[in-house]
Amino acid sequence: MTGPTIPADQNRRISGTMFSFQVFGIPIRLHVTFLLVAAVLLLSGLGEERSSVVYVLYVAGLFASLLLHEMGHVLVTRNFGVRTLEIVMFPIGGVARLDRRLQPAEEIAVATAGPLVNMFLAGACWVLATVNNHIVSLAGISNSTNDNLGAQLFFANLGMAAFNLLPAFPMDGGRILRSILSRFRHADDATRIATWVGRMTAISMALYGLFSGHYLLVIASFFLYLGAAQEAAAALGRVLTSGIPVRAAMVTEFHTLSHNHTVREAIQMSLSSSQQDFPVMHGGEISGLLSRGSLMRALAAEGPDAYVVGVMDRDFISLTVDHDLSTVLPVMARASHCALVLQDHKLVGLLTADNLSHFLALRRFGLDPEEHLPA
Q1: Do β-strands 17-23 and 26-31 pair in parallel, antiparallel, or remain unpaired?
Q2: Prior bond to 91 cis, omega within 30?
Q3: What is 132-152 written as a DSSP string?
Q4: Which of 18, 56, 114, 365 is the most exposed place for a label (fewest CB within 10 A)?
Q5: Looking at the domain covering 246-371, what would its CATH class be?
Q6: Would residue 345 be called left, alpha or beta, if left means φ above 0 and alpha means ψ between -120 and 50 degrees?
Q7: DSSP assignment letter at 7
């Protein structure tokens, strides 16, 4: 069985990013929250004993350390033949999107690489500080000056390594914990345990940050909790869908459009039913898909009398009825509209995000889809 047919525009970047650049051919994107925290960090440090130029260099050093940390992950993933599609920088670090899931042994090596890079950078900063006759000590770092930049970056990189080695998913330590647990438990069970530890760690960090006045720690704990919760939901989704075919969750009663239908007629059809996405047919063959987003854009740009053939999406996701739902979940997570389900090259159903969510909710209550499959 071949894999899902996914158009190039569905392999799109993680949303919420504002600026991007490339390192070694890999897109590095800055999430809006990362930029906000960076701005707060810059403004909060100005006016200290050290000069503004030295403080900007310090913040630039922090960013470079984070970036090199991620490059450590990238180099090891390449060694395993895994391609990094993009890296999005969040306040707690980078999130890499890979072209396949890592095996447990691979994940341990990849997760370890980042903190090792920070330890190497800490050593380099210590050498830089001592060569310039600067004393590296915790007592000295509490009084930041123009003369102890190397010492500041030394402790910053040690802190990054220690923070990332926390056994809390999605931190590197949490990924290592999941990989070790997966040797004794099912991979999704291991993920649930690691993400539970991640959520508990995030709550503890948030409480400490609130009572101690370290509000940046509160922000970091929020993203830690969010990342753990999202991965836990993904793991639950895989458990609920593993071994279940697409035909168990697809919509079998739906309307189609033809080339001579107009945008006005498509809108009338969407208002008279709950369907939001319409396959466009011509001579019994699928020509494209008119999604709700495409319909609204066409109405604004072309007007209600435009023909759907000129505004439909010609690239769309197509699945077969026997595709395993667990392999389809990541595809649907990236999709902005539905997928078309085929059997013997004929359209037999639609798989929409709403229907899939409804199906997963029913599965959590013990529904056996095999008893409800269409004949």
Answers
A1: antiparallel
A2: no
A3: TT----HHHHTS--TT-HHHH
A4: 365
A5: alpha beta
A6: left
A7: -
